[in-house]
Design goal:
Elements (H helix, E strand, L loop, with lengths): L1 E11 L3 E2 L2 E2 H11 L4 E6 L2 E2 L7 E2 L10 E8 L8 H7 L4 E12 L24 E9 L3 E2 L2 E2 H11 L4 E6 L2 E4 L5 E2 L10 E9 H14 L3 E7 L14
Antiparallel strand pairs: 1-7, 1-8, 2-3, 4-7, 4-13, 5-6, 8-16, 9-15, 9-16, 10-11, 12-15, 13-14
């Protein structure tokens, strides 16, 4: 794994740039500039300053739902993209965070090796609580079942229990065309992200098994602060 940056761009669903949805323009601009990959997620509720709450509930449909564009690459790779972002982003905002990242492409060495030494060398210290995000395609499979299900099972087998799976509406990686939910455009497949939060050492044990499931994908790792459920918190004195 190598140090990288995760850029998350928050925009409105209906915001446009030169005639196309802004989130779509951002993804295409990232791909044109050679960034490693991007995934777009659509929310079902949200708000911004001086705006009403937007929700996907039928009885309260406000439209213009929140959209997040997530891009991961080495910090230097963003240099050519940031001027476009600053020029195109009018009302949304972007945040950047440090991650460790490991990209697996078709034919890359070690993608089928559960003991891959380069995935997380022993000298790399992990935070007490780590968040792992695995980016892959919805159509990816492993031993006869969806790969995202196999990845979730691998995390559970290594003691990680806080898991979630998110389906994106658009995305790409270095070895694929643009994936999109729009009919008759780009590719019918969609991006998926499996997220796991757990103790750093449990994460270390799970990573080789997760990497072995992927023939193509991206794994990112970052430290987080865990807020336990109320029932598990110590009583106040």
């Amino acid at each position: 794994m190598k140090p990288a940056k995760r850029l998350r761009i928050f925009v409105d669903e209906y915001e446009r740039h030169r005639g196309r949805p802004l989130f779509e323009a951002l993804v295409l601009a990232a791909r044109e500039r050679g960034l490693a990959g991007a995934t777009v997620f659509k929310g079902f509720m949200g708000y911004a300053p001086n705006e009403d709450i937007a929700t996907a509930e039928i009885e309260r449909l406000a439209g213009n739902l929140p959209v997040v564009v997530e891009i991961v690459d080495e910090e230097a790779s963003f240099q050519s993209f940031m001027p476009f972002l600053h020029g195109a982003l009018k009302t949304g905002f972007a945040i950047s965070s440090d991650v460790l990242a490991h990209q697996i492409l078709p034919g890359s060495p070690g993608s089928a090796n559960r003991e891959e030494p380069g995935l997380l060398p022993g000298g790399v210290s992990l935070p007490p609580v780590a968040r792992t995000r695995v980016h892959l395609k919805d159509s990816a499979s492993f031993e006869g079942r969806p790969a995202h299900e196999a990845i979730s099972a691998a995390f559970r087998e290594h003691g990680l229990r806080d898991l979630s799976t998110h389906h994106g509406i658009m995305g790409f990686d270095r070895s694929s065309g643009v994936l999109s939910h729009r009919p008759l455009r780009f590719h019918a497949d969609l991006p998926v992200v499996v997220e796991a939060v757990g103790e750093g050492e449990a994460t270390r044990g799970a990573l080789p098994a997760v990497a072995a499931i992927l023939s193509r994908g991206l794994i990112t790792l970052s430290g987080v602060k865990f807020v336990p459920p109320r029932a598990s918190r110590p009583p106040r004195r």
